[in-house]
Design goal:
heterodimer; A: alpha/beta; Protocatechuate 4,5-dioxygenase, Chain B; 10 helices; 10 strands; 37% helix; B: alpha/beta; 60s Ribosomal Protein L30, Chain: A; 2 domains; 28% helix; binds fe (ii) ion
Amino acid sequence: MAKGSIVAGCLAPHPPHLVYAENPPQNEPTSEGGWEQLRWGYERLRESLSKIDHDVLVILSPHWQTYVGTHFLGLPHFEGLSVDPIFPNLFRYSYNLDIDVELSKAIHDKAADAGLAVKMMENPDFRVDYGTITTGHMVNPAFDKPLVVISSNRSRHYYSVEVMQEMMMELGRVTRDAILESGKKAVVLASNSLSHRHFTTESDVPEDMSKEHITSHAMHLWDMRIIDYMRTGQAQRIIDEMPEFTEQAIAESDGGGLTWLLSTLTVPTYPAILHGYGTIIGTGNAIVEWPCYAHEEV
Amino acid sequence: MALLRSRGGLSLTNPVLASYVVPVHPHPLLVPEQNEGWQRLRDAFDEARQQISDSGADLIIIYSTTWPSIIGHQIQADPNPTWTLVDQDFHDLGSMDYSFRIDAEFAEAWNKANHARGLQSRTVAYNGFPIDVGSVVALKLLNPDNAIPAVIVSSNVYANRAETTVLAKSCLDVLKSTGKKAVAVTAMSMSNRMFTEFIDAADDKIHSLKDDEWNRKVLEFLEEGRLEDVAQLSRTIHQQIRVQKVVTFKPMWWLSAMNDNRNDLTGRVLAYEALHGAGGAVVHLDPASNGMGDKEYDEDDVEVYHGERNVLDAEGSENTPETKHVDDNGPALWDPAEGKDAVNTDSAPKPVGLYPHARRVGDLLYLSGVGPRQPGTNAIPGGPIRDANGEPLEYDIKAQTRAVVENIARILEEAGSSMEKVVDVTSFLVDMDRDFAGYNEVWAETLGHYGPTRTTLAIRALPTPIAVEMKVIAKI
Ligand SMILES: [Fe+2]
């Protein structure tokens, strides 16, 4: 079997507003658009990924929150209706997606060997979280490639950012190993925002872009600092500053996705491509791609 | 409203017939047989179900910690939500089919009442809306045949005590106006730290001795009917036995307010057991007075929510983070006292008592203490030092000091004096260690130039949430 590879790593945030703004047939509410800067960013990411041959998308979403270990979707197919519990007015999406159970199980097994608490999720009634679905949709609206879906272990809440990072670095390493051994070409996706302080009110027309801005200057400065590290190939500094970033920007990286992603890419020293940045009800969101295929032996 | 409240025992006007605390994890519903403790929790749920059924309640109201919200509070308003829920962690224990009867009319009325009391909230009525595990477990076990209609409210991740208290008051408004009698339920863990590893059901126990001890102390209070005491300890309890999550120990604020913030309820702990390490308790609180007499309580009894929610409209001077309104938490404002030799001006902030801005005596001018509040808006440049609940806030001492000096200059100008003519200044700081350097820097750039004598004192508090005030004597 040929050696597998990670062909690209992406930061691919999941605010349901992006799906809402596109009016895809799967989503019930309708909008007049909005958040175009980010949606154009996703367009560029899709364009970029369409040029890279890949078999599977591996996603870690902070909205499948598990406190007891890290879990993996473990059945080949899931379909149903996903209603966002926080923005049900924007996101009621009929999903239909396939899971690469073989690869999921391979990552699961390696993680177990490395001493992490892990579990396969095999209940057919399980509803896939809206973060996974939103990121899945924005990256590949046809859902014609199988996914590996990894839960977000809340170790940051139980212990600290440092413990979360330790676990996610390990999970990233075993994810990478399993992909390389699988012979498959994978795109890995961390589904999270950067700064994550929301507005606590919503305008009458949610897509009214005259109301959209970052919640505070400090949040903006943090987002730009992190993006700068991404664009200049300084991923290690992101890892190093993660505790401060997560605390001070209330960043959604608390779910572990970003650390895990950087670990799967062996903490890249090459520049990432920023496809877009914008705010969604005040939170900072960046769409970023690490073009591994151009920098690693594939 | 205050007149209706009964401080010494059973309230004749409070429509809450009974209150319950119940755990959120699905074990007592799905697999009680796997662990004796889980079975005891199940038995306690069953006992509570019987009590509720016998109570004659028209409504079950659930405040659930496993339903977080961001845009204010959300209230379930689908008359018949139907779905199959699978727990995110405990999916291997099985699926939970549900079909509930919701009092949608009550939900809409509560939403309206929230807005009337200044709260942000909305109802949700969408096919497939994911009802949270705490609510599903509670309703399936407490009301299995839907004999009593229910209402479910979320736990807002940003809500403070004031907001959570007002949420209960608006709920009481609707109960009173509709004449309905209700049972109030909080779906919550006590200590909420679970084991992060998988364990055998038989090995379940409270995660740590410390969590266990705190749980028992909290339950002892509840058993004594001291609900408001528990509510006031909420922040401490959260720090001690709760995993840092956005949704805190705030349900006790809601439940206490639903019971008129009383401390003399009749409490009973029906069960207390471990659920994968977390503390799960079923507690019954009867509004009948336990005869012990009510106790003092010292937190504000908030009627209307004034907190800043309007982040979207932050452009105006009123709500920018640098200059926040304080008329919500400061004392009442007065018109400056008139009188012979009094000097008053609209371009200085209104006094907090009956006194003028300044008074002339011969060729001297004595100013009343001047703070940084802005004339007209009453905003505090650099921000107030605490919020409406008395929680400390970050503030900028330099901005506050500059604003004080500007106010002084305006009063001097009104009296025909000026900064050069200032003779003596007494400054008051509420936090000498934190603020002296910043205050001193601004002093040197402003009044210090003109050479008045100066005395700086540390004091415990000022009447408004400000950090600095100055008392000035000048020549005219
Ligand atoms: Fe999110």
